[in-house]
Amino acid sequence: MSGFVALIRRDLTLAARVGGDVLTVVLFFALIGIVLPFAIGPDRPLLTRLAPAIIMTAILLALLLAIDRLFRADHEDGTLAAMRFGHLPLEAVVFAKMIAQWLTTALPLLLATPLMGFMLNLPPALLGRTLIVLLLGTPALISFGAIGAAVTVTLRRGGLLAPILVLPLCLPTLIFAVGALDDTAPGSADAAFWFLAGIALLATAFTPFIAAYTLRLGSE
Amino acid sequence: MTSETKSPGFFSRLAHPGQFLVWSRYLVWPLAGLTVILFAIGLYLALVASPADYQMGETVRIMYMHVPNAWLSMMCYGVMAVAAFGTLVWRHPLADVAAKSAAPLGAIFTAIALLTGIVWGIPTWGTGWVWDGRLTSMLLHFLIYLGIIAMWFTFEDQHRAGRIIAVFTLIGVVNLVVIHYSVEWWSTLHQPASVFTAEGPKMPLELLTPLFVNLFAFSFLFATLQVVSMRTEIMRRRVAAMQRQAAMNRGAAPSPEPAR
């Protein structure tokens, strides 16, 4: 277990030392939230209606932007190969890296969401629910992203391939997350919420095994 | 030595790439001929000999294109999933080739199903596209196909590509289930299944016969194209291997050209 914690701590330290990556992701998220109202126009009721969808889309895009670096640096300098033959199973390595990725990309986005909701005229009553939905949805998005990152890690020219592969997998999560924030239909919103929870649990449970298996196949 | 090695079984010999090239040569023309005959009958039945629908009128004939293509887009993915299983479990070289050949075919069948759906939807539903469960999941299916094709193009090492794409293909199987049940889970606009139901087909025989003839026609078209495309792929890999061998014999560095 200590190796697992040490690995998370290592990734967090790396992110803190280089720092720029976390800021880039949050800035990207904020910029989508600034650009879209310009494109839509300053129609506040319309923004209120669109706010959950805009936040979810911005989160999805920001997470996909960052996902490529999940395994790439470690693959290129050979750390991943060392971890493959290390004491800790590769599945645990992947899970530790997913947790670190969540802490360094999804958590800052969650902290930026109240500000984003304020700018997009999100009803304050909906903010708490938005954060809970994000808390459920982001692990699922990180999981699908981890599969995409594991599939494309050996490709030198595959930078844009991972988001393209992952986006179709992420769409159900997006649909149910936005559906869970639909305050006009409480019954179907609750159903969407439980669907979202199911997807998040299944995705986080299976991803370490799928991604580790893919990483092994890729390095044969 | 020879007493210890087990002689390969009947199917392993059939599935050896070299053997496949030998016996599949005799399969291409009969399959192509059968496809042409089935299409001739199917198109005659669909366009001339079948009645117009009492509600939809003549536009019902689009069904004979739409439904077979939609079924085949799922069947193609099924073939790819079985091939992916073969790649991962038995590491069979022919399974890679089958999966790679089926992907563009499946993408085209899906595209035709979507396009004919749009053409059919405009006169009957009054709209070409809605974000209905079946339509959305079919679009996702199409995007997954395109992602898989993009992966085949991006990997340089086609053997490694085969295994990694196999994993991704098996993940995408979840969407097949979603497509199948989408009309029951979200019953918005697309009609539910009306041919393969527990109570039997809910469609009159004069519409069902041309539909099935066309389904067989498209299935044989798929079989023909799949065999031709697998043969092409095997030969392409042999050419790439020979080029590498020739480059090595000349003493040059092996060509970095990807072996597609």
Short description:
The complex is a heterodimer of chains A (220) and B (260). Chain A has 220 residues and is mainly α.
Q: SSE string of chain B, helix = H, strand = E?
A: HHHHHHH
- The residue-averaged pLDDT of chain A reads 88
What about the largest sheet of chain B?
Answer: none
* Gap between N and C termini of chain A: 27 Å
Low-confidence stretches of chain B: none
**How widely separated are the two ends of chain B?**
36 Å
- Overall number of strands of chain B: 0
Broad structural category of chain B: mainly alpha
> What summary fits the major beta sheet of chain A?
none
How much of the sequence of chain B is in beta strands?
under 5%
Fold and architecture overview:
The complex is a heterodimer of chains A (220) and B (260). Chain A has 220 residues and is mainly alpha-helical. Helices cover 84% and strands 0% of the residues of chain A. The longest helix of chain A has 33 residues, at 186-218. Chain B is mainly alpha-helical and 260 residues long. Chain B has one domain (24-248). Chain B is built from seven helices and no strands. Helix content of chain B is 74%, strand content 0%. The radius of gyration of chain B is 22 Å and the shape is globular. At the A-B interface, helix 7, helix 8 and helix 9 of A face helix 5 and helix 6 of B.
